[in-house]
Write a structure and sequence with these properties.
Blueprint: H1 2-14, H2 25-31, H3 35-59, H4 68-90, H5 92-98, H6 109-117, H7 124-154, E1 156-157, H8 161-165, E2 174-175, H9 184-187, H10 189-214
Antiparallel strand pairs: 1-2
Amino acid sequence: MNDYREIAWQGLWKNNPGLVQLLGLCPLLAVTATLTNAIGLGFATMLVLIGSNILVSLVRDYVPKEIRIPVFVMIIAALVTCVQLLINAYAYGLYLSLGIFLPLIVTNCVIIGRAEAFASRNNVAKAAFDGVMMGIGFTLVLMVLGACREILGQGTLFDGADLLLGDWAKGLTIHLWQVDTNFLLAMLPPGAFIAMGFLIAIKNVIDSKLAQRTMPANPEPAVTRARITKVS
């Protein structure tokens, strides 16, 4: 159980792919203009991450080290194609909204990095759990960033939820305030870059506070030993 707790802690916080490893920043900064887009891309990435971790762990003993990266990329590409076809079939509006960044999941460093660093060295259960935790961690960062940008940019939440869930979800849009013109800086990638910097700074502050709490309240003072030499 301790191993799984450590995997969860690594994926959700300590080694979060978005806030710590800074992997997959291209889709993270470009697609998260709304919370709906962030959720769609996050779940697509998580599905591919879980599937690739499982398959890489299954074939790790049969793939020569010299060709392991091309094999991993082929596995990821096959899974991305399946996810892309599913989104195209059941959420066509979201498929159009995500655009080129959906097939570009193949080159997402989060997925290939976990396949190489973890899945190829651990059993199927741990590899699958690592995919779940890393996927959730990455999706949470996408959601927080997408929510912040959507609120600042157009004063709404869940705008375009029908693209992900169907026509019935049009009523899920929350209008926090009315804006005459959208705040373009928040909606464009430079605004996402600035918001991402604030998120990383907040995480660093929280980490420093947690580190201070774990330190002993009254550390023992260092004892200085004096050497006495007897003079005759």
